């Protein structure tokens, strides 16, 4: 989270010597008459003086923009149907060599979409590599992919976005494939569309260990829920407003991609996969090393088993309609 200063505003009014109570009453009467003459109240004037501090850069979201929902304007009956409001969420941790180029490509290929970068406590020059007009939320320390993505989904929910797309900052997800995810979400009754690297005619080249882990987790999800999915670890996905609200309420912390697929299916959200071409990571290091691959599969497997009885989005407590 960006550094914020504290604004302290003090008003000192010296009462006349002698009758302090009478002086205070006279000042209150004068203040009321002044407020009536200007058409404002003192509380309204005080509120208008306080402005949110800027976050990192002038074009970035402010504290009040993140913390307070923006009221949606009532549409006119005769107005044409507006295009869906879309937000592309880019989580980044020490991705200074790839995230700047990625964001520029997203702006060029999808000018109608907003791009929000979640800097997950990077210690390199990730923030400085972003274009000046980029929306940015900079976390004070590394929360992991789960915390970074939930930050983005909360931003999307508070600002009334209709569609949110996750594009990883390491450059593996092709910006040219984002529009296909959005179109698939709009033309079907799906609540979430996942880009699968294994449904593409050009198979994605991955290590045998990683491929085995993905297949084991996909098999485990099918055994627990009946959902057939080929790429449960893919972070290249688009969701609609219902899922945005659900994610803003609760989102897994560690390696959330396999878990949310199972949980969404159990909560009667429709999950759809489409082919998606991806590329190898060009810079940086993967968040899952080969040494931790076996532990990761066992850990996620146990979490998936627990997810069969978990209710992260209870009906009646959260509105996902």
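Q: What amino acid sequence fits the structure above?
A:
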């Amino acid at each position: 989270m960006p550094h914020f200063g504290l604004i302290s505003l003090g008003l000192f009014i010296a009462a006349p010597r002698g009758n302090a109570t009478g002086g205070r009453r006279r000042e209150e009467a004068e203040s009321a008459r002044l407020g009536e003459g200007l058409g404002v109240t003192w509380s309204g004037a005080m509120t208008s003086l306080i402005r949110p501090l800027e976050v990192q850069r002038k074009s970035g979201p402010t504290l009040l923009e993140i913390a307070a929902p923006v009221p949606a304007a009532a549409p006119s009956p005769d107005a044409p149907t507006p295009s869906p409001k879309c937000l592309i969420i880019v989580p980044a941790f020490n991705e200074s060599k790839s995230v700047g180029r990625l964001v520029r490509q997203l702006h060029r290929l999808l000018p109608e979409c907003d791009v929000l970068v979640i800097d997950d406590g990077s210690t390199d020059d990730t923030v400085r590599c972003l274009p000046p007009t980029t929306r940015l939320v900079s976390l004070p320390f590394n929360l992991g992919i789960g915390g970074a993505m939930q930050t983005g989904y909360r931003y999307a929910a508070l600002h009334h976005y209709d569609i949110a797309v996750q594009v990883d900052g390491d450059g593996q997800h092709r910006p040219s494939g984002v529009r296909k995810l959005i179109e698939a979400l709009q033309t079907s009754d799906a609540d979430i569309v996942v880009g699968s690297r294994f449904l593409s005619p050009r198979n994605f080249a991955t290590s045998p260990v990683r491929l085995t882990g993905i297949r084991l987790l996909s098999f485990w999800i099918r055994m627990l829920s009946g959902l057939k999915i080929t790429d449960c670890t893919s972070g290249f996905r688009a969701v609609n407003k219902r899922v945005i609200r659900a994610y803003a309420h609760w989102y897994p912390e560690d390696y959330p991609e396999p878990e949310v697929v199972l949980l969404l299916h159990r909560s009667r959200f429709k999950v759809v996969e489409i082919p998606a071409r991806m590329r190898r990571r060009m810079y940086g290091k993967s968040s899952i090393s080969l040494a931790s691959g076996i532990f990761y599969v066992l850990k996620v497997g146990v979490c998936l088993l627990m997810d069969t009885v978990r209710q992260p989005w209870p009906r009646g407590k959260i509105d996902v309609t």
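Q: And what stands out in the fold?
A: The chain has a mean pLDDT of 79.
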